[in-house]
Amino acid sequence: MTDDPLDQLQAALKRQTPAPSDTARDAALRAAAENFSAQSQGSADLVRQTPNRPETRAGIWTGVLTMLSNLTQPRVLMGTSALATLAIAVVLTQNFGDYGQTGVVPVSEEVVGQQSRGVAAPAPALTDELAESARVDALEDLRNENQPLRQNGAERLRSLDDGRTRGAAEQTENRGAQGQVDRAESKVSEFILGPNEVLQTGPELSAEPMFTAPPEPVFIAPESDTEAYPDATPNPLKVTADKPVSTFSIDVDTASYALIRQSLNNGVLPPRQAVRIEEMVNYFDYNYPAPDGAEVPFRTSVSVAPTPWNEDTQLLHIGIQGYDIAPADRPPLNLVFLIDTSGSMNDPKKLPLLIQSFKLLLSTLSEDDSVAIVTYAGSAGMALEPTPATESAKILQSLERLSAGGSTAGQQGLQQAYALAAQMSDEGEVSRVILATDGDFNVGISDPEALKDYIAEQRDSGTYLSVLGFGRGNYDDATLQSLAQNGNGTAAYIDTLAEAQKVLVEDVAGSLFPIAGDVKIQIEFNPAQISEYRLIGHETRTLNREDFNNDAVDAGEIGAGHQVTALYEITPKGSAAERVSDLRYGQATEAAADPSEEYAFLKLRYKRPGEARSQLIETPVAPDRQDIAATETGFAAAIAGFGMLLRGEALPGWSYGDARALAAGSRGEDAFGYRSEVLSLMRIAGAID
Asked: Does residue 128 lie in a domain region?
């Protein structure tokens, strides 16, 4: 038999409840009545005394103890647990605990023991100290007994410093524990007094709860070894004569850089699989020439420069600048916030930060925009119906009511969010689902490939998907990358409110208003000039050569004003850096497709929003082409080299210090301090690697 008082009480209540003992009840009530003073109210034999008179207080408590003595007899309790007596004691002390000092001593253990055995004993009176002690003991016992409910199988960790967010995480749990106690009290009352009688409190007595449990600072942390990242190895070196064509989907995500920054600021190197160099490079703004107008929404720039970590190779720097939309020309925006409120989000860096981040986003919306909120935890639900952005108070109130608990029904949430976005959408408007989660989809579709297929089916509806990741420990980067890449959307990681400001305020147009979809890049290298090459980053975005001309193949999206940066390390023909020898019986090296001096030929395909047929932009790459300022190429190269070092790639003779020196010398204009910030991260990485 379990020693848990709650379990004992529940077991007792499940058994057949015996008929109440009239004899015991009458004796208890008679004893209490006899201890009341002569002054009373009512006209029955067993009249109810007025408790707020000083001369009656000692008698009241004497009656209470006598009644408890009778009620605790075995024939009455029939095996109920100690919690039943505790609950009655707390109720009684709550009712009588505010009457002030009585001038008599508290009840001793000896007196209580005598009364429980039916031995007459002096009748001590209630004191404030005794009342307070009873309440504190009851609260402590109930906290201890309900601790497994709060734990949810996880180890309780240290209290957090951030007091603003700690209380919110406990409110739901405390309400659940309080409800259990209230139900237990009701059962105990019915068990002792009979099914048709309950313990009464007079109209003048307090109607406040038995106790108010102050929220404890509880942080339930996820397991630290459950993070998941895409399994992608660095792109290999390609021999131009064998494979002259490189094709990939553009990537404007920035999640990897924020993840790396958080790890380094915590004094540890990031997981190597978390390092996606293209996302690190694209985190920063570059001074690329802008397109002339919206008719051709991109301008492609190309530069060739020396490679910082290898004097015998060169960098091919590709910069794409998207057309920006003036705020007055932006179409109406329909946003569905799809918010993960599962138990794993119970962390100050998750749900509380998420709510604050969405509050920042609301400040950027116009009167033509609308917002809805869908949550998922165990099952999906609509927390806010479609609401005009002008009703900010209503939207904020819905956000602030959110709390974490339960499992993660991600599939249901996605289904409901997409359906709601379709309902809100109208011609000429942009509809977007913004999924905010730690990526822990443990109910419904949990396999990244299955999620990829589901999202791919939904993207044809015209609804875009943005993914915001929060928290660490169980962060599922692989799932979120799959969602973003296949849902016509972007992915960012929010580790601070400052990052939320960058993603959802400063870069809001590029994040929410698309100017082109299915953007693909293909470069054909000239084997007469370039013997070898490798694409730096974009490992999860590579495409087959034939995918470039196939408009049915999905690729990345670009938002208003967005930029795309890509880097190739190329080896000129005859360079000392050549790593692959010519074949004796292979294709003659002088038999080039184009014997001109061009290094390569760049092609870019894209679709305008709502169109099914792609447009083509072509750009030849000459050895001396310099469309991009040297400082911009230098800074991009420094970030790429930094990423390669973090991934453990061999760069002989080049270090974190070299990357930092190059970045510092190429920092240029840095209005928000983002370029300066990475200098500190490089120093940290060098110190702990």
From this structure: yes
